[in-house]
Amino acid sequence: MLLLYMSSWLAYAKEYKLILKDHLFYPAEIKVPANKKLRLLIENQDDTPEEFDSFDLNREKVLYPGRTSVIYIGPLSPGRYDFFGEFSPNTARGTVVATEANDADN
Hints:
By secondary structure, the protein is mostly beta strands. The protein has helices spanning 2-12, 101-104; strands spanning 14-21, 24-26, 29-33, 38-44, 50-54, 59-63, 68-73, 79-85, 93-99. It holds the Pfam family Cupredoxin_1. InterPro entries: Cupredoxin, EfeO_Cupredoxin.
């Protein structure tokens, strides 16, 4: 049952890629469509682990060095959702901006 749910969820999730390098997230801001399910692919290019943390998105996940991690979010109401690296909170910072579909495509 869980597998069926996940496969149907994945069919509707759009992918967005983040890179963690030198304790910074690239890009630091991602525009996404509001009210859609999303899949964040986060590639940690640093030699140390980091923890993706977001109170706004209610998500946290350890990002192991040299690996790509997946975090599912959404659907999100229009707005700004901050995230940060818990081990480097002063540098590893970013924002997901959920906008109406026409604005997110730009």
